[in-house]
Amino acid sequence: MLIDTHAHLNFKDYKDDLNKVIKHSVKNGVTKIICVSSNIGESEKAIKITQKYSGVVHAAVGIHPHQTDPETKLSPEEQIKKLGELARNKEVVAIGECGFDYSPAPPGEKDRSKKEQALLFKRQIELALEAKMPINVHSREAFSETIEALNKYASPKLKGVLHCYSAGKKGIEKVNQLDFYFGVDGNLTYDVGLQNVFKQIPLEKIILETDCPFLSPEPLRGTRNEPAHVKIIAECLAKLKGVSIEKVAKITTENAKNLFKI
């Protein structure tokens, strides 16, 4: 059994064949998927998907540091209020993805100011604590700021994962001090530097992610990613660690169940 803890099944990339994608995932041993969100509309859609695929798909509701819905009429505070309402749904197991991103927004999205990113992240950390849920943290070109923000709320109650961890060996101890997990994605299969980093992280601190439709692993780079491909990431991790894929599956699944209570 494998768990994909970060999939964007609520993206338009899957509008025509979502049922086929989920069946393919289950067939490949990926029997649980967390559908992660980046805005209010996606969060609502994630909940609807979990209701249709109950027991297989679970939802994370959140607001990305970039404005992924540039046409929204809701203010940041109104979005947080709506997010709090959505988080009460029984299908929701986490808040996110949220955090800091200081890289330029990709096409179709809009940059937020650092001040607005900080406000949204702070409110979502507070929401996660209030809802007693883990937080799924996005951090790009802003690792120090991300850790600083999380440390302000650091407590045994605050749990979470650094999605698509990319802060190198120097950042490992800072994440360990928070008692957060490290998310590993398809880029592990072709990024030698990242492979050297994850050799230093114990399996007991790792959870598997695809970030689909992005970050397809080798040999599928350039194609649409999907949850079934988490198996390729697990195989790569097993090779790096010198252990069986069965051991990787067992430990990372236990980690995901422990974090998300699924």
Q: Concise description?
A:
With 262 residues, the protein is α/β, with parallel strands linked by helices. The chain has helices spanning 18-27, 40-52, 76-86, 114-131, 143-151, 172-178, 192-198, 230-241, 245-260, and strands at 2-7, 30-36, 57-61, 92-101, 135-140, 160-162, 181-184, 206-208.
How would you portray this structure in words?
The protein has 262 residues and is an alpha/beta fold. Helices cover 39% and strands 17% of the residues. The chain contains 9 helices and 8 strands. It has helices at residues 18-27, 40-52, 76-86, 114-131, 143-151, 172-178, 192-198, 230-241, 245-260, and strands at 2-7, 30-36, 57-61, 92-101, 135-140, 160-162, 181-184, 206-208. The protein has an 8-stranded parallel sheet. Helix 2 runs parallel beside helix 3 and helix 8 (230-241) packs across helix 9. The longest helix is centred in the middle third of the chain and has 18 residues, at 114-131.
For this entry, give a set of tags.
262 residues; alpha/beta; eight-stranded parallel β-sheet; 9 helices; 8 strands
